[in-house]
What does this fold into?
Amino acid sequence: MRKRTLRRGLVGFWWLTLTFLYLPLAVVVLFSFNAANSAATFTGISLRWYRQLLGNEQIVSAFVNSMILAITSSAIALVIGSLIGYGMYRHRHRKLGWLIVLIYLPIVLPDIVFGISEMVFFVRIYDLTGLFRPGLVTMIIAHVTFQIPFVGLIVYSRFVGLDPTLFEAAKDLYAAPVKRVIHFMLPTIKPALISAFFLSFTLSVDDFVISFFTAGPESATLPIYIWGAIKKGVSPEINAIAALMIGAVAIAAFLSLLFSQRRRT
It folds into this structure.
């Protein structure tokens, strides 16, 4: 009897937690279809705010910047992070405690500290050399720096799960280093690479603080645009933008989880 009561209590707590987490998101999505001009009342279902988004040049520009930033930074972070992950695997038997600290530091460091340090660095470089003017390029570099640790750890965990004798078998079959990479390593860690890319993409689209401190006047992303527009009040148009971002991040997170599960199998 006590076990059944405890189990029901845990199930109830589970559903209460899910409601607390996702009810605000559901409200945002619901009011994005609001036919009223105000976000305070709901009068009916309409797609007017989504159609209005397509005619807003600032929103379209912010969306394009977000996609360029997310895709470019994720691709660069995937290459560099994969090399770091493989290097960590190759030298895993050495004492690399300092390297592990450097890998984890961008993950645990508060975003505002990371963003301010990146801003100060780029401004200083720009003053001295005229390079790295705050804009989309500096945002890409900043995003790559905090995406690399996630990619490196995912790729490293994939390599650790492999049988070490597979690498020796590839050498015994006289496979050249390039062939070992193309025909053995890349197909083996492909699920991890895809999972790492979508995770990096999700982190980039979701980021506001680091983007805000490293952005230029013409490189606003969707989170930055929402932050500026919300000062005038929450409108159904803002709800529509947030709903699209929720959908994009949810799809990327689902694909990342899907390939992560395939990686374990």
